[in-house]
Amino acid sequence: MVRRALFLLGSGLALTAGAASRFPPPDFEGGHQLPVTTTPAPRELTLEYLDAAVLLATLALATWLVYRPRSRRGLAVLSVFSLAYFGFYRKGCVCAIGAVQNIALGLFDRSYAIPLTVLVFFLAPIVVALFFGRTFCAAVCPQGAIQDLVLVKPLKVPLWLEHGLGVIPFLFLGAGVIFAATGSAFLICRFDPFVPFFRLSGSLSLLTLGAAFLVAGMFIGRPYCRFFCPYGALLRLAALAAKWRVRVTPDVCTQCRLCEHACPFGAMRNPTPTGLALETPAVERKRLSWLLLLLPVLIAGGALAGYRLAPAAAQLHPTVALAEFHLANLKSPATFPPMTPEALSLERAAADPETLLASARVIRQRATLACWLLGGWVGLVILLKLVALSVRVTRTDFEPDRGACVACARCFISCPNERVRLGLPPEPGLAVAGPVPAAAGTGGA
Amino acid sequence: MNGHPAGSPCSRRQFLRGGARLLAVTGVGGLAGVLATRASAQTTRWQIDPAKCVRCGNCATKCVLKQSAVKCVHAFAMCGYCQLCTGYFEPEPNALTTAAENQLCPTNAIKRTYIEDPYYEYTIDEELCIGCAKCVEGCSRFGNGSLFLQIRHDRCVNCNECAIARNCPADAISRTPVGHPYRLKTEGH
Ligand code: SF4
Ligand code: SF4
Ligand code: SF4
Ligand code: SF4
Fold it and tell me: Which of A130, A311, A138, A151 is nearest to A221 (CA)?
């Protein structure tokens, strides 16, 4: 046996694959028992249903905390729990933000069945948002919770910047859906800045990104939620149609302005100033029709941009990437050390280039179509944002913007009526020159 | 918000909002209905198809975990129990001793146990194995191919998109039903 093995080695004879049992398994005279190959079981399916149950329970609890006891402290405690459970225990993987990609993949790829738990994670927060606003963001989402908990001193982001950057989540959502639907990549998961923290491991670049978000999050409230989160974009839309809304005051707004600066996430909106000359409906209608004229231009522009981007985007699909690599290598052959991923990839490509190139072509066509759509989507989103900005809103009270409010309940306590409700004395800092910036104004209306 | 006369912007908005909500609820309901036909009570796990794996080494480096969830496993029934295991020893060992420099495994994760003349048993210490596939390559190329890589589900966090899968040059990693989460090599495979 030794000699045989040595001979094989010595002659450098590289037998090709498939030649199993070159050395027949022995019959042991001593009756040696073969060990069994262990197969550690994955997490139980029942535990995954437990995840879904925990989601529903925390969602219900968060909603209740926002609307009934209106308790910021309760939400903070729940945030810590959610961060611990969905974040550090579940390592951020089953997550509502990423679920939208599974949904897209499931709709377009017949061979992929969406796990039921993922479906629940995708749908439940949206349904709740349609009635109560973004209570999922308030204390259930671990990504939201980690940003919420690192916040120290929120700086104000100018409203125009807030609106401008607020377009990004919709674009990210479009890209995430389209890349998932074409089976290219799960972009949203790949660029989730916090999951590497939950796992306490990950590539250096991602950990740096996460750290950057957390440091920024100390001064800019929830930067990922406001300017990137694709699921937040969906929840924002749902919350706009919500039946009930988060209100600062438990009963009536006395226009005391004390809550004006209370929202660290730029969601507070002032009442429409009275006395200012309001635009006549005619002016408004004219602007709207201009914007509608802009619609085809924006969509066409977006689609064209998408078309130009398509070849690069298609590269995200591993098959296309391999085909490109193969072709590039045919043109200018490079040598890679044997047994490296590069060399092995090329080997596989060279084994059957026709099939590879053919399937790459199909995928590329699909990607081109998808990029057209994505570009059109970008145009549409920008336009809708412009329309939303130009529509006149009459607000009589200080109130959080329905879409932007993440229902964190921070602003409640700044309302004197809330303090009365809770039986608390008025804001202690008010009498003295306190730290509350709003106190600089008039005490009441 | 209360007490606005009918036709005022507020009640119009409320009406629009109600309509939008009705639309959205119907839409979400419809979507849920469609998705329900595309959903499964089962979930999936990522797993390597050992028949496809080309032992490139990505498994050791691309996993999102600090120490890869991929480990070498041994199909003992396929093993020849060779004294000179080509998955264990360097191709040209200085001497047939178990000194580290003679071993293929960079982490000394393979334990070599004498069974009876001339047979030795090779077992993997998963705490040490980093899933680099060096031993798998040695065993597959010159031996019986009884060593192979598998994603170990006690370690894997089941990423929504496995980071190794998207880097695998052999496209060897795919989702498997959670009920059959391993693709083991068996005798005569
Ligand atoms: S906006 Fe996104 S990241 Fe933020 S809390 Fe909501 S779902 Fe989570
Ligand atoms: S990445 Fe693929 S080919 Fe490379 S070792 Fe892992 S399974 Fe094998
Ligand atoms: S050679 Fe690599 S794959 Fe094999 S046991 Fe050692 S670390 Fe694991
Ligand atoms: S699913 Fe994630 S943890 Fe599991 S093997 Fe792949 S990259 Fe590693």
Answer: A151
ipTM: 0.87
The conformation of residue A352, written as its DSSP 8-state character, comes to S
Regarding beta strands B39-40 and A114-115, do their DSSP bridges make them parallel or antiparallel, or are they unpaired?
parallel
Average pLDDT in the A37-64 region? 94
Whether residue A26 and residue B141 make contact (CB cut-off 8 A), yes or no, is: no
Identify whether the C-beta of residue A198 lies closer than 8 Å to the C-beta of residue A88: yes
Least confident among A11-25, B53-67, B88-102: A11-25
Per the structure, the complete domain to which residue A70 belongs is given by 47-244
Asked if B144 and A21 come within 8 Å (Cβ–Cβ), the reply is yes
**A376-397 CB burial, b ≥16 within 10 A, e <16:** bbbbbbbbbebeeeeeeeeeeb
Q: Which residue has 């129990």 as its token pair?
A: B81
**pLDDT tens figures, A168-184:** 999 999 999 999 998 88
Residue A53 lies in a domain: yes
Residue B157 in tokens: 């966090």
Query: What is the DSSP track for A244-310?
Result: S---SSSS------TTTT--TTS-EEPPPPSSSPPPPHHHHHHHHHHHHHHHHHHHHHHHHHHHHHH
Nearest Cα to Cα of residue B132 among B172, B104, B93: B104
- Residues 6 or more apart in contact with residue B60 via CB below 8 angstroms: B68, B70, B130, B131, B132, B133
The tally of domains found in chain A comes to 2
Per-residue model confidence as pLDDT tens digits over A304-362: 888 888 888 888 898 999 999 999 999 989 888 888 888 888 988 888 899 999 999 99
Amino acid letter, A78:
L
DSSP bridge pairs for B111: B123
CB B86, CB B120: distance < 8 Å: no
Summarize pLDDT for B1-34 with one digit per residue, the tens.
444 444 555 677 788 889 999 999 999 999 999 9
Residues A123, A212 within the same domain: yes
Residue A19 located in a structural domain: no
* Contact residues on chain A for B158, CB-CB shorter than 8 A: 42-43, 93
Q: Is A28 on the interface with B (CB under 8 A)?
A: yes
Instruction: Give yes or no: residues A109 and A236 share one domain.
Output: yes
Pair A180, A321 in one domain: no
Give the closest ligand to the alpha carbon of residue B125: 3
Residue B71 in contact with residue B152, Cβ under 8 Å? Answer: yes
Check whether residue A62 and residue A190 sit in a common domain: yes
**On the CB side of A288, how many CA atoms lie within 13 Å of its CA?**
12
